[in-house]
């Protein structure tokens, strides 16, 4: 008799839990499917991983499929072709597509500052010493190419004449290229700095020190997708902001995310990457006019760049609605 009572009690408990779950937000709402492509390493991975493990995307009604593409320029092509609903990459890539005729819009910028460094072989201690050498970017027209050109110009070189630029791939591939001696310098995600220094390589420029506004990490969508899915656009931006808040306010969770993404237990690397992400990420993810202008100034060879303005590249409707609703407080 006692065993029967225990079984009945257990069955009742399971039933009550199921009923309670059916009324919770995660179960009661239908999730909207969204396909996101991203390129690069570091910041975007941290935001996406925090949102995934904390259930933030699902809580905001999104069933988010995340796919990695190893170059921002390739990701742009896939977004234009409709392979993805949104790209999570550098804003300069979306702007270049817009300048060349695609209706690609920046809907949010979660980092308005650079987070890359310029890394060189042990024998090279300044940008100027790269003259006549080989340097690496992911692909031509990518965000890494844009930043590489900017760093080389700031260091006194003409990227079109003074160096040979090779298309190598993402930060991991470029790190391998410089370790093997294939190239003498490369733009690199800051997460690799502790390892690079241990290997004897030099950081000859930290773009974060420039304090220049730049749409370093943005959510880019095609205009027709934004018009058809305003609710989903808002949900994604809100989720990104909440993920950033979690990274900035829960250090143990943030470090756990970094360890998972970088697949390392090296304390110095984890601490450094966590510190950089907290400094660079913005939970109020508005693009800045200065950041857009930085890109336009660099794209001075594009025919439409001189006559273009901030409003041509951004769609702020979702951001403004979320701001009015208090989502970024």
Kindly describe this structure.
This protein has 329 residues and is of the alpha/beta class. It folds into two domains: 30-112 and 213-324, Periplasmic binding protein-like II (D-Maltodextrin-Binding Protein, domain 2); 116-210, Periplasmic binding protein-like II (D-Maltodextrin-Binding Protein, domain 2, 3-Layer(aba) Sandwich). Helix content is 48%, strand content 19%. It has 15 helices and ten strands. The protein has helices spanning 2-22, 25-28, 43-53, 56-59, 72-81, 91-99, 143-154, 171-180, 193-198, 223-228, 230-249, 251-262, 267-280, 289-298, 317-324; strands at residues 32-38, 62-68, 86-89, 104-113, 116-120, 134-137, 164-167, 185-189, 202-206, 213-222. The strands form two sheets. A five-stranded mixed sheet has the order 2-1-3-10-4, with helices on both faces. It has a five-stranded mixed sheet with strand order 7-6-8-5-9, with helices on both faces. α3 packs across α11. The termini are far apart.
